[in-house]
Structures
1.
Amino acid sequence: MRIVLPDKVKFLIEKLNQYGYEAYAVGGCVRDSLLMQKPKDWDITTSALPAQIKKVFPHTVDTGIAHGTVTVLLGREGFEVTTYRIDGEYEDARHPKDVFFTSNLYEDLKRRDFTINAMAYNDSGGLVDAFDGIGDLRKGVIRCVGDAEERFSEDALRMLRAVRFAAQLGFGIDKRTAEAIKKRSRTIQLVSAERICAELVKLLISNHPEQLLKAYETGLTSVFLPEFDDMMQTKQNHPHHCLTVGMHTVETIRHVPPQKTLRLAALFHDIAKPKCRTTDENGIHHFRGHPLKGEEMTGQIMRRLKFDNDTIRHVCKLVRYHDDNPPLSAGSIRRALNRAGQDAYPALFALKRADILSQSTFERESKLAYVDEYEKIYHDIIQKKECFTVQDLAVNGSDLIAAGMRQGKEIGETLGKLLELVLEDPAQNTKENLLEHVIK
Ligand code: ATP
Ligand code: MG
């Protein structure tokens, strides 16, 4: 088994060898190389202690020195070089509370989460695979190194990582590993929101986001995203739908491009449906007000999961307007743009299409045609640089004051009225014309 190491990685390993230390590429980069995928980064594991690593290389940064990690700079590139170690209990961060250095590679591989992540490689030693990671790569399974329950009791986040890797690689989860997750799923509550959030995002933007269902089946979402479980348990008796809210949501996630905000918006777009469901006299379900209530719930959930404010704002907006269907006239669409703000576009179209494709086929063609036309008119408005916000008006507050209006809330009200005028007819947006209106 040969892996082609980048020159810089070869250099790092050879240099450490020259000083009498062992060194290997390890973890994700070995896994990805064996899968013929390009690794995101190359991590090195070595028998050298941090102080010794720093003596070998002139340019280093103490990224995680207490845990044995030194970043070695080669030109503009940084490589994490970590001493062989045995981990104590994990705490909130991504590092264990205490670590013990060892000179035995096997001990280091043993502390790693899954067999496919516990392989090391260098050109002289070849592949070091103590736990049949290669067999699991071939079979396509995520399996814990050692006893799954024990490994999850050391660090509960590994349960969600198992699902995340399954989603990224399109793998199954080994039976005993999956059973251990089921048994210990409640303990995911011990893990910090930040770590959960990072794994959830990786899962969502992966090639197989439908594996979120595995997090549901094993009981993980019931702890960190119980609102998803509510969606899974909410039926929709309606001609436009054939799936539960939860299954419809998973389909919608699959149908939007793998971008963070879009996948999150798809996850949350119907989050309030379980709370908003009513049943009419014919037994048909309705979900009135779910976009607005959904915006509120999305904000609460995302704050709980410690997302950054920018992402929260953007996702909330998409949730709020996902079901906004203005009449297909330029005026109405300029008003829609004014309501949602331009930064909701064109993401909103991707979300709307995915939503439609995840509903029943009832009226699907006409619903898609509506979005096409909506988008066409939108592009036209943008291309012509037509006004759809107060800031785009040909007059501002100072102009009104200069024209003789008194300072105060009247100014804002007047600008609002002028905007109404211009939203309907962009040709009206000249300073002369607007001031004339004000005087009248
Ligand atoms: P990615 O492509 O997402 O970076 P990766 O395999 O490199 O995948 P990292 O989170 O960067 O994953 O971790 C690097 C390596 O460290 C893993 O391959 C694994 O061997 C080990 N590791 C990371 N987190 C844990 C953990 N919580 N428990 C045990 N081992 C872990
Ligand atoms: Mg990595």
2.
Amino acid sequence: MRHIAIVGSGPAGYYTAEAAQKAFGEDVRIDILDRLPTPFGLIRFGVAPDHQSIKKVARRYEKVALSDNVRFVGHVTVGEDIAISELMELYDAVVLATGAPHDRTLDLPGSDLAGVYGSASFVGWYNGHPDFADIDPPLDGRDVVVIGNGNVALDVARILSKTTQEFAGSDIARHALDALETAATRTITILGRRGPHQIAMTPKELGELGELENAAPSVDPSDLPPEAQDEGLEPGQRKSVALLRDFAACADGAGKGKTIMFDFFASPVELLGEERVEGVRVERTELDGEHRPRGTGETYDLPAQLVVTCIGYRSPRIEGVPYDEGAGRFANEDGRILPGLYCVGWARRGPTGTIGTNRPDGYELVDRIAQDIGAGAGKAGRAGLDALLEERGVEIVTFADWQKIDEAEMARAMKGAPREKFVRVEDMIAAHRGE
Ligand code: NAP
């Protein structure tokens, strides 16, 4: 029998479990550990609440979760309740599928002012993540600056722009919906340190900005390169740039209450304010021969009472696990970290790609694990884990427990919404205990 522990129950974790099931059939036992009582990681806490169709992929993970040789072990923190070295003693392979839930930080003067958030906390807030449910971002100002030109910047700008009606059918956390409903936001400026050709935004997500009820995107035509240069772009990027051209050409945003301004060639150099952020000092950039941004020395100030940085993520460190500081992920070679210790998904390659990218990642890793562990080394596996956790008084949350939480969340949903999430761990536990 082979025993595999997967740390993290997001897409990378479940695709790896699925691949291990397919590769080893009945000759494997897989435990998927998660710090929280709820499975699916990024699907629940990262994917935007108004992108419900993307969340449907969880049904596929549920099928894996409900099979006999896979077990969800929720509410167990690796590094606190159990050390990674102990897991490695108990299992033939330990796979870190932790994702990259920490923000890459913007180390600028003023970054620590009140009102400045990384996307992990801001997205966590509107998605009801227990760690961020209480951050209470200030929405009493007219001006928000969103830093970064990726899809997360688009998610944040869109969530800040939507009307309450546009959240119908979403699972946005109630506290966020209430706060957004009374927000004073009028202008959301998306800062990109490079130009329209260098955006990391995909056309579907960018196109959504053009369809908002009470907000209109705005692009300065002079930021756009000559149209003929779009020919050199790959097709997806060409579509995105075409959308920016439409936004630049369309001047009918005036009737809408909010504006989403794209400010290109604009690199933040300082966050301004005394205690609370009041603005962002921006330096105009130009591109060098390799399309990298270079400051021109020209600066200007933008007002901002809320700043959200959307500049990428890092994996959390785990004691005893080699870490690549520069890349912000575990040090690994094709997913191998140490004998018996692996990583997959964002924890392996950094925060890039779509949810589907994690599928081949998981399958390839299982091929390597198969080469390394043979038929298994007679390890204790889940029986050993259970004994250790019981000794330590750690009560796990099983998949059946999660299903009770799931039912309770669906039962308390607002009309038309798929669920109303519990945002506190103790409420999740109480829900599965039926308290
Ligand atoms: P991302 O795609 O890597 O974009 C990060 C952005 O931050 C880039 O525009 C980058 O600019 C900018 N940036 C980095 N450091 C900066 C700095 N110091 N100052 C100013 N700007 C800086 O990351 P993401 O938006 O966090 O998305 C992560 C992954 O999740 C991506 O693969 C994304 O496509 C995916 N995602 C997908 C969806 C969806 O499909 N609906 C939704 C959300 C996220 P440079 O290019 O100049 O470095």
3.
Amino acid sequence: MSAPIGFTFDNSFVRDLDGLYEAWTATTASAPELVVLNDELACELGADPGALRSPAGVDVLVGNAVPEGAEPVAQAYAGHQFGGYSPRLGDGRALLLGEVVDVDGARRDLHLKGSGRTPFARSGDGLAVLGPMLREFLMCEAMHALRIPTTRGLAVLATGDTVLRETLQPGAVFVRVASSHLRVGTFQYASSLDDPSVLARLLDYTIARHAPAVARSEAPALAFLEQVVDAQASLVAKWMLVGFIHGVMNTDNVTISGETIDYGPCAFMDTYDPATVFSSIDHGGRYAFGSQPKITVWNLARLAEPLLPFIDPDRDRAIERATTVLEAFPGRFLARWTEGAAAKLGLSAIPVDDVNLAEDFLGLLQQAGADFTLSFRSLASALRGDEAQLRALLDSAAGFDAWVRRWRSAGPSDADAMDSVNPLYIPRNHLVDEALRAATEGDLEPFSTLFNVLQSPFVERSSCDRFALPAPDEFACGFRTYCGT
Ligand code: AMP
Ligand code: MG
């Protein structure tokens, strides 16, 4: 008899929210194999990594066996995709296996992606392939190491089946962990149902799960909206401070918890340009780097709409109150971003007599076409007395010397503290591509090496020099990412 895996399930979503899911099970994988397992996260979930590596554990992770206590469902949601409304999206190729109560008592969704067609699959095949699932695993764990709220990667498994994309590719399942999979699109879907009690139950459920303190406020739905606005303002500020481009900020990909979700076409920016877009389908640049804050407000307005009847019985008054909360987003975002930017410059705050100091640094980066990550990192070296790298990156920009004088007179201090907020190692597109190419050809070594480097993004290691370097020019231009892989 195999060792118990150790997950303790308590499936509140299934218990409380019928109408928002279909009970379903995964398609059987013919010859499942574990490709990567996140041992540390497995332990956090109360699981035994050894048991997860056993054939019985692999069967659970790939969806071939339903562990005791799990109640797999495909979740329903709607969403605005690139501005156009789709009333019924849902988990077309994914399942919520159940909610695990982790070793700290926290409720964590255990979710399979690529586990076969569901009632929400529409024309999709319900499947996923190895390269993109490894990519999601790598990117979300890199984000976690950068201290950015995110869904997590527990494992990637090869199914043993082939999947047709542009070519035949190895099928895979990604096992995701999230504080929940409640999305703006979940509220949009619930509000479209004939039975109004579903939306009311969803709101109560979500408040209890993510915002219990607001239940005691005078207008809980409004205070809930405010909390989500705050969480998203803080999240997007963190993205902007590391050069992260989500790539597909549709309302079904915006979590209520404030965790980054859905790593399809995301990528980190190399040279700084707010217009940067990597996604092959984002022709209009809707989700360009610099547009992310304003798109988030638009997405949050889509959350506010279904909440209006709960905010105030008088619709005009409800709109007025919700608008006030949404209008606070730019200020909240800017406060978070400015706080983070000051720390990146080695300052406790941006000086009141030089409020554009951080934005002007970005202006230099853009003018010089300089690498975003390295430019910030080189400020600490300059503070330690070695200005060579900063100068090499930026002194072609008009106003460089004047900016350095302004920065120095603002009193930057503690280069080590700067290093602890300016990452040296990020998942650079050329490195990710190289690692995934090798992995899909059966060589996991470059993937594991890159994964390990990205686990400590702030700590310089001489053996990792090449992971800190920008992409070769021929790679950097024309790099593209893809959705629905
Ligand atoms: P995404 O772009 O990954 O956020 O997915 C948008 C919607 O398409 C979601 O409802 C997914 O479940 C669905 N979807 C994406 N790929 C597939 C697929 N291969 N089969 C079925 N549904 C899919
Ligand atoms: Mg999605």
4.
Amino acid sequence: MKDELLKLKKQFIEEIVSVRNLEELTLIKSKYLGKKSRISEIMSSMKKLPIEEKREVGALCNKLKNEITQKVKEKNEELISKSTFDFDLTMPINKNRGSLSPITIVGKEVCDVLQKLGFTIVSGPEIEDEYHNFDALNIPSTHPARDMQDTYWTNSGKLLRTHTSPCQVRAMEKYGAPLRIAAPGRCFRNEDIDACHENTFFQLEGMVIDKNVSISNLLYVMKGILSEIFGKVVEVRLRPGYFPFVEPGFELDVKCLICNGKGCPTCKDSGWLELCPCGMVHPKVLKMSNIDPNIYSGFAFGIGLTRLAMMKYHINDIRILNSCDLEELSQFDIM
Ligand code: FA5
């Protein structure tokens, strides 16, 4: 038995040197260490040996097993470190590739349109302070408009931004006037979730400040964005809207493209979807960010990017977009 064990060791060393990949290593490991290996057979037949010989052979078997285990481990590490550079260009392409989210695509399209109009793309923090999310937008703590956006507060007194409008404040502070910025980003509200409301969704803020900016400038930009994104004229309606940081304020709704205005769960049976509130920047907001409202005026808008993606790609339920369900999302593999 002792001779056989020495022979096995010699044989193993010769074989492991020529192992080229992990499959071969698995085979060799099972050949020498598996339940049906010769070493296991020797170990189970030791019972019949006299006690002295049993002790000697047992110790040899254990030593050999430990040596083989160590060599297999070293070979495994060697093969893994080499495998990074081991490309097989003849392998078929993995068809389960990832794709961009419809929200990312639509966001980029809107940014492209705005950049052509001279807008700069900016960003702001998702964890905001109360001043930028509310106070600087003419929403002091006593203002009932704070209830319009149910807020997630952090223990340190900060909040998850409820809209992208704090980005306008940060841009005014940083760049002053004149100004033309767009800020796409994620927002958070403690909302009841349904087919068109999520607690995490995307908006895109836009702001223009200059001399003699008017409502017709605002409508020109809004119409331009929608016709570029949808590639056709979509029916919209403009109605008065209340936001403390604009005056006058408007709600711009789009005719629901899921039901063509007939009424469905996505538009809550109204035939219209609130998509793009906007308005002329309130003089108080300009003043708070050190811009003189006697010289400058401006407009701002807050596109619901998630809803825009739903309308463009006919996604009838907002929950699909946040579901992480790859099977559902793969149907929007549009890039
Ligand atoms: C605002 O958030 C304002 N900051 C927009 C604004 C900017 C007005 C600049 C005037 C000037 P509102 O709460 O309506 O407004 O949200 C804007 C858009 O975000 C909505 O029209 C809608 O398209 C989208 N939205 C709002 N809440 C949700 C939600 N829970 N889930 C998905 N989309 C939402």
